[in-house]
Design goal:
Length: 219
């Protein structure tokens, strides 16, 4: 009989979902903005981050993330793994209302929407001051017990910004950019999971019970 309940449990238990939020629509304090594509993927107990610029008209220097009215802990407690390029991503601040992200790095002058909880949960430093020839950054952190639905406003500071159709690394791009996005697109990365209707589960349960009873009579 215990096997029956195990089978029923497995029939109704949904699989662990992997989902992503993609930010690619930005509001800038400048007439132009970087072609940022930020993807944050929730996988198991982790958030996987990928920030690229395509076409490559800017180089990011800092990234701000609002996770809602939560506390993620001190910067030193945030473990970064799978950092690419190696050593080019750091946790600058956590749980802060400051718009600073390091030397020459801030969102000052950018009119931001209200942040849930009034602060940034995560502020990352990307590369260093000056041009680093880095188009894409990627890394992983804990998900802090959250899902991708917690992701809210994100902000980016870029110290390199090209104008017109000029692109890096060959372009002489001396501009800078401060942008935010609050319109991330949610994507389910798992194939569709079909959950049986209650009536179907009931029939399945009765059938399994009937089989068990028949076996007991035969024995």
């Amino acid at each position: 009989m215990n096997k029956i309940f195990i089978i029923l449990f497995l029939a109704i238990m949904p699989s662990l979902a992997n989902a992503s939020v993609v930010y690619n629509s930005w509001t800038s304090n400048d007439s132009e903005t970087g072609n940022y594509i930020l993807t944050i993927k929730s996988t198991g107990a982790f958030f996987n981050y990928n920030l690229t610029v395509s076409p490559w008209n800017a180089e990011a220097l800092g990234l701000f993330i609002d996770l809602g009215a939560v506390t993620v802990g001190a910067p030193g407690s945030i473990a970064l793994t799978s950092v690419t390029p190696t050593g080019q991503v750091s946790v600058y601040a956590t749980d802060t209302s400051s718009n600073n992200c390091g030397t020459g790095c801030n969102l000052n002058g950018l009119s931001l929407p209200a942040l849930v909880g009034g602060d940034w949960e995560l502020v990352f430093g990307l590369g260093s001051t000056g041009f680093n020839n880095i188009q894409t950054f990627s890394w992983t952190t804990s998900n802090f017990g959250l899902t991708e639905s917690a992701l809210g406003v994100v902000g980016i500071r870029a110290q390199q910004l090209c104008s017109g159709t000029t692109v890096l690394p060959t372009g002489n791009c001396g501009g800078s950019d401060k942008s935010y996005s609050s319109s991330g697109v949610h994507i389910n990365d798992d194939p569709k999971v079909t959950i049986p209707e209650p009536a179907t589960l009931a029939l399945l349960g009765l059938g399994l019970i009937g089989i068990a009873v028949s076996r007991q009579r035969i024995v």
